[in-house]
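User: Just a sanity check before I run the rest of the batch. Below are the structure tokens for the first item. I only need the designed sequence back.
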């Protein structure tokens, strides 16, 4: 039977059941049918499943089993208890959890819809908390379809109460599966819409479906803290079991039949839909794919490259403390695919904590999730403004890693070193790098780590920024200018070469973005971190270059 298809005679009989199970002294104020008869997977001998909400009910919450006028299993609950279970999971979601899936209102649909939406608002808050705690600032980069909130919740409920898994599988794999899902998502859409005002999320429509984007500032606000205070995550499963036992106090034969029925259902062969078995498979990104594990990502990229079989090799890219690795997949016929895997939780990332001690003038982000977010967000934002940045191929969520395209070319640091050593007089590429950094600044970003080793001169001549994990919108742009020139001085012993590098970079920079950040970069607080490692003569050379190139009308 599909949703909304209870016939008039069935409704009449179910109302008789509702009055019967409430008993004397009370009255049903709302009734809803759920389960196999409504979802469309009932057998000929299946019972009706009912939620009966009563204004007064001596038992507060109880199962009642009846054989006439129809065979039915009725869950009777006081109206106040249903409200508390919907809003605060007071009964461990024992009642409100049944409103996650399709149901058919028989009496007072407004009350049932209210309980459904209140319950789903709480579920959304819970799931948002979980996503934010798992992925930190990177949670803002995830595109979360409404289906995720439904199926992740059902997945966890099935872990707490395994007999429910059978009904979840059938509900979302039977002929009425799509209709059932649309019904369930309707309540989530209304719940998400009401939460938008709190600033925690933004609800978007795309490709015919609704999706949620989390808002970083909203997650830190008081509104979200108030939402989280509505429930207690640690006692949910225990409370649900306790209420189940309390509500199910019936005769031994009825209990035995119910238990046997659940055991048989659990033993039945039924393959769960992918979204129920692995809800994280629903998570998306604006650019690239989101997968939980590296092995899954490698398999996906191999498949996209047409490699049915391959041999995988890895090597470190860049400096010794780099967390980026070049991964090469090579097929038996010589075909290959290459990409860069960057792990933000790598132990070598401790360098940022050390640098925070060493460079009080600038604070680096140390959180893996925050650095992953910065790299991802800045990559998309800067490329949209014409800055050359490698494409993001995917994110390995559970391992805090990004996968990016491999850009063929030479490191800018090699070209800079050739100038410092006097092996070449050509400073054009350094001047172009000054223009490129200025372009990043004009786009509203600061790099945070502007060393030339983080830039690739591509085969197309473009300068690709390959390391954006410290990039911030509205960050300290003068630090970028100072970092490049002083870091290069640290690596050099030749003042003439250093002057050429500094002048070329600053000339290119001021051409695009003026002299303000150059002037600020000359402040003593920017010099201090490099002073212990740099020869005095080279520091003097850099300071003079900053002074000359920040003067009005500089050549």
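Assistant: Here's the designed sequence for the first item:
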């Amino acid at each position: 039977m599909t949703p909304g298809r209870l016939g008039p005679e069935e409704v009449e009989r179910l109302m008789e059941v509702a009055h019967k199970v409430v008993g004397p002294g009370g009255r049903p104020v709302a009734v809803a049918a759920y389960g196999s008869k409504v979802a469309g997977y009932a057998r000929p001998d299946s019972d009706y499943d009912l939620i009966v909400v009563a204004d007064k009910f001596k038992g507060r919450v109880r199962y009642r089993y009846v054989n006439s006028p129809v065979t039915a299993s009725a869950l009777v609950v006081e109206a106040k208890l249903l409200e508390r279970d919907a809003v605060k999971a007071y009964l461990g979601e024992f009642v409100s959890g049944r409103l996650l899936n399709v149901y058919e209102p028989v009496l007072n649909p407004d009350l049932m819809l209210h309980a459904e939406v209140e319950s789903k608002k709480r579920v959304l808050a819970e799931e948002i908390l979980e996503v934010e705690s798992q992925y930190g600032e990177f949670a803002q980069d995830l595109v979360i379809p409404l289906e995720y909130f439904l199926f992740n919740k059902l997945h966890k409920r099935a872990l707490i109460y395994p007999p429910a898994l059978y009904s979840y599988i059938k509900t979302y794999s039977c002929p009425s599966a799509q209709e059932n899902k649309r019904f369930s998502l309707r309540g989530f859409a209304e719940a998400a819409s009401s939460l938008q005002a709190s600033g925690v999320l933004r609800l978007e429509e795309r490709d015919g479906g609704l999706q949620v984007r989390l808002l970083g500032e909203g997650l830190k606000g008081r509104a979200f803290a108030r939402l989280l205070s509505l429930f207690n995550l640690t006692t949910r499963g225990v409370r649900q079991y306790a209420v189940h036992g309390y509500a199910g106090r019936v005769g031994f034969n009825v209990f035995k039949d119910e238990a046997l029925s659940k055991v048989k259902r659990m033993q039945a062969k039924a393959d769960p839909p992918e979204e129920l078995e692995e809800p994280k498979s629903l998570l998306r990104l604006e650019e690239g794919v989101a997968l939980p594990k590296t092995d899954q990502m490698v398999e996906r990229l191999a498949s996209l490259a047409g490699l049915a079989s391959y041999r995988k090799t890895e090597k470190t890219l860049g400096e010794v403390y780099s967390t980026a690795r070049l991964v090469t997949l090579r097929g038996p016929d010589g075909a290959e695919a290459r990409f860069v895997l960057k792990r933000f939780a790598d132990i070598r990332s401790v360098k940022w904590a050390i640098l925070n001690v060493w460079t009080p003038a600038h604070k680096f982000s140390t959180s893996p999730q925050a650095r992953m977010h910065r790299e991802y967000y800045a990559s998309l934002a800067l490329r949209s403004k014409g800055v050359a940045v490698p494409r993001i191929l995917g994110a390995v969520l559970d391992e805090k890693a990004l996968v990016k395209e491999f850009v063929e070319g030479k490191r800018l640091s090699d070209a800079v070193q050739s100038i410092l050593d006097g092996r070449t007089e050509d400073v054009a590429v350094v001047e172009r790098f000054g223009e490129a950094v200025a372009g990043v600044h004009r786009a509203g970003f600061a790099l945070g780590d502007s060393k030339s080793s983080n830039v690739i001169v591509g085969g197309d001549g473009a300068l690709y920024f390959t390391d954006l994990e410290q990039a911030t919108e509205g960050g300290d742009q003068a630090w970028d200018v100072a970092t490049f020139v002083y870091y290069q001085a640290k690596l050099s012993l030749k003042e003439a070469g250093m002057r050429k590098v500094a002048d070329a970079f600053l000339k290119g920079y001021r051409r695009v973005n003026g002299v303000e950040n150059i002037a600020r970069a000359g402040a003593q607080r920017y010099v201090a971190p490099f002073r212990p490692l740099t020869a005095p003569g080279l520091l003097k050379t850099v300071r003079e270059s900053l002074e000359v190139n920040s003067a009005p009308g500089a050549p």
